[in-house]
Amino acid sequence: MAKIDATDDRILRELQRNGRISNLDLAERIGLSPSACLRRVQELERSGVISGYRAVLNPAARGIGFVAYLGVGLGEHTKAAMSAFEKALAQSPEVVECHNVTGTIEYIIRVEAADLASYKAFHTDVLGTLPHVAAITTYVVMDSPKDLRA
Which tens digit of pLDDT belongs to each residue from 113-128? Predict the structure, then answer.
């Protein structure tokens, strides 16, 4: 595990806000020389603290008008059941996140669809056909006042 000091933490927060910030602007915001800032960013990348960069997409611009989190309980708690469920979700473009959790359910998934009808088709034709799914609870996202991924 890499040792993160206060300066590294500030660098990471700035990069989370804007991964395309120039090294010169980043150095200025952090209060470092550009060469020292670049060395720190490269070390954070090399040590695996920074594992990559990505584009943040606008769901509405992509035709996504329906977002929900689903709690999914399985009827069997076996490795085979979990693997089959995870494999099915990996092939479903509507599923953008899948988390295996503890508690009364096994999974929390994030689903993005064009609209309610598209979500219903996913719910019925994908989740509804998986043999080990015993319970599905849908939480429709109405607003996201804080989302660090955006």
Answer: 999 999 999 999 999 9
pLDDT tens-digit readout, 82-122? 999 999 999 999 999 999 999 999 999 999 999 999 999 99
| CA–CA dist 22, 111 (Å, integer) | 33
What is the number of H-type helices and E-type strands within the chain?
A: 5, 4
Compute how many other C-beta atoms are within 10 angstroms of the C-beta atom of residue 47. 13
Element (H, E) at 5: none
Tokens standing for residue 77: 């708690």
Q: How far is CA 75 from CA 6, 84, 87, in A?
A: 46, 13, 17
Enumerate residues 6+ apart whose C-beta is below 8 A from 17: none
- Whether pLDDT at 150 is above 70: no
How many CB atoms are closer than 10 A to CB 55? 6
